[in-house]
Amino acid sequence: MIRLHHVYKNYGMGPDALSDVSLHVEEGEFVFVTGPSGAGKSTLLKLLFLAERPTKGQVFINGVNVGSISRRKVPYLRRAVGVVFQDFKLLPSLTVLDNVSFPLEVTGMGRREIVKRVRRVLKFVGLEDRERAYPLELSGGEQQRVAIARSVVNEPPILLADEPTGNLDSELTLDIIRLMEYIHERGATVLMTTHNKDIVERFHKRVLSLRAGRIVS
Amino acid sequence: MKTLVSGEKRPGPVPIHERVSMLTARITYIFRKVLRNFGAYPMVHFLAVMTIGISLFIPSAYLFVYYNLTGLLTKFGEEVHISAYLSDFLSDDATDALMAQILDIKEVDRVEYITKDDALMYLSESFGGQADVLEGLEGNPLPASMEVMLKEEFRTPDDVSLVASKIERMNGVEDVIFAQEWLARFHEAVKIVRIGGIAVAIILALAAVAIISNTIRLIVFARKDEIEIMRLVGATRLFIKAPLVVEGMIQGALGAALAVGALWGLYQLFMEQYYSEFGLFFGAVDIVFFPNTILLSILLGGVLLGMLGGLFSFGRSIRV
């Protein structure tokens, strides 16, 4: 599903953010990507949701070489990858319902169908009665759940999460990880970065460790 | 899990009715988004409309002056005529023939025949109260004349002298005069106004474009976060730009309406307060407001500028 082949990434200043990274993630896996700050975890994810292109090497998502597809096709590929961020990245001027509707609106889906699906996924994350609330009215944990809802609303095969529990306390953290496990059980391939050792120890998943841009075992 | 990870939308061709409903959904989305944007950021849009309005006001005011000036010039141009003085002993038939001959010339628009008696009458009228000066006159020394008016496109110095020389050679014509020097100068003035007018108009239009484009760029910049998330979630560039383009068009239309409205207000004010005082100065010339065709052009111009501003609002400031 996800394959990196001798990938290097340099932002143009200083050392490589990623250096000779090769890895393979099968469909349906749940992987933790760990490492200290600056190890390159976020960069790896950025390559996978196409915010960056590799400086050298190839990145394959389901067989498609994402480094060489035309700019025009990038949006369509992005619709297959759900992303959750540490800072949630919700739109403060939109309600929860509208925030979660976004990924479906870009596909040209009809309003009624969108609302139906959004409500279904809000129920899934346990926020069905907050659909009219604005992000700033919600707690951190709720906001992250909204972000997760948005990331899975169009049922992407891949879910990426960049330190999703970084801003949350430990109890909420467990809730969020369990939610992601639930999504994983329904067939998604999940990649999650974290530098929280407790999570890694508690949930037994495959672990990819990065250090200074390289994979260590 | 349904979405494909191959960069394609879906396998096989999409049936027509689905394409149509997708397009409808997208268009509805755009209008909803535009309305929501106007509601969410009323201040920004108000300022944008004001900015566009002001930047369109200047070219519009200029156009107003230019429009009235060329109207004035055209009216003055109507004064361009050739006076052909006739010999005293021309029979009626000969006079008719001569008139027909002059009308035959392609540059000629119309001809007015002034008899000796008419000429004397005009002269005494121009003396006003002093008409008794003419009482001592023996007979009527004034000749009859043909006042020849040329068509608008032939009122250049070259054409006029050409026609004058043609008429000079005709039977029965004693003398031909026209305001040669004045005509040459007038023609130069018209040329300068026209060329200068176009040059200034272009510069002002470019200035308006630059201002409008920058205004929209600022709006886009302010929405950077929103746009970033839209891209993340798989929106195409067109999808993100379309509401901005529509917003630009609406702002352009409102701005144009504002500019024209302000101009009209000033025009009314001027006409009411000052025209009666300066009316004599302007002579018999009317100062008019734009006809509907020009108003419509200004409005469309505003819409077009807004649209262009929206289309070019991204540039390098937004990461693709």
Brief sketch in words of this structure:
Chain A is α/β, with parallel strands linked by helices.
Describe how the helices and strands are arranged.
The complex is a heterodimer of chains A (217) and B (320).
Chain A: E1 2-9, E2 18-25, E3 30-34, H1 41-48, E4 56-61, E5 64-65, H2 74-78, E6 81-84, H3 96-105, H4 111-124, H5 140-152, E7 158-162, H6 170-185, E8 189-194, H7 197-202, E9 206-211, E10 214-216
Helix pairs in contact in A: 3-4, 3-5, 4-5, 5-6
Chain B: H1 16-40, H2 42-77, E1 81-86, H3 92-104, E2 108-114, H4 116-127, E3 145-150, H5 157-168, E4 173-177, H6 180-222, H7 224-232, H8 237-282, H9 292-311
Helix pairs in contact in B: 1-8, 2-6, 2-8, 6-9, 8-9
Describe what you observe in this structure.
The model of chain A has no long low-confidence stretch (mean pLDDT 88). The two termini of chain A are 21 Å apart. Chain A is globular. Chain A has helices at residues 41-48, 74-78, 96-105, 111-124, 140-152, 170-185, 197-202, and strands spanning 2-9, 18-25, 30-34, 56-61, 64-65, 81-84, 158-162, 189-194, 206-211, 214-216. Chain A has 217 residues and is α/β, with parallel strands linked by helices. Chain B has nine helices and four strands, in the order ααβαβαβαβαααα. Chain B has helices at residues 16-40, 42-77, 92-104, 116-127, 157-168, 180-222, 224-232, 237-282, 292-311; strands at residues 81-86, 108-114, 145-150, 173-177. Chain B is elongated. At the A-B interface, helix 2 and helix 3 of A face helix 1 and helix 7 of B.
